[in-house]
Amino acid sequence: MWIGWIEFDVLLGDVHSLKEKRSLVRPLVAELKRRFEVSAAETGMQDQHRRALVGAAVVAADHAHLQQVLDAVERFVAARPEFELLSARQRELHSED
Question: Among 67, 79, 97, 78, which Cα is nearest to 4's?
Fold first, then answer.
C-alpha cells in the first residue's frame, strides 16, 4: 500500500477578507475531493486572507497510480486562475517503510 500527500502554498488574488478567502478555498477543496477522490483540506494559514495551505492525500495499491493522482492534483491546482501556486511539497510512503 502506498500513501501520498501533497501540500500547496497558494497566493489568492484580489481577496480582502477571510470570508472572500473561504469562498475560493472551499470550492477548491470540494472539487479536489470530487474529481480525484482524495482527502483534501485547508491545512494552514487560516488567519491570513491572501495565502492558504491546501493539502490532499491519497492511498493507492501501486506507486504508479499514486504518482499519477498526485501529479493530476498538482496540475489542476496550478491551472486555477484565481490562485498563484507558490510551492507544492509532496511526500510518499510505502506501508512497509
Answer: 67
Q: What angle do CA 87, 92, 97 make, to 5 degrees?
A: 150
59: which residues sit within 8 A by CB, 6+ positions away?
1, 2, 3
Neighbours of 53 (CB within 10 A): 19
| Segment 33-81, tens digit of pLDDT | 999 999 999 999 889 989 999 999 999 999 999 999 999 999 999 999 9
Q: Cell 517503510 appears where? A: 97
**Which of 3, 93, 73, 13 is CA-nearest to residue 49?**
13
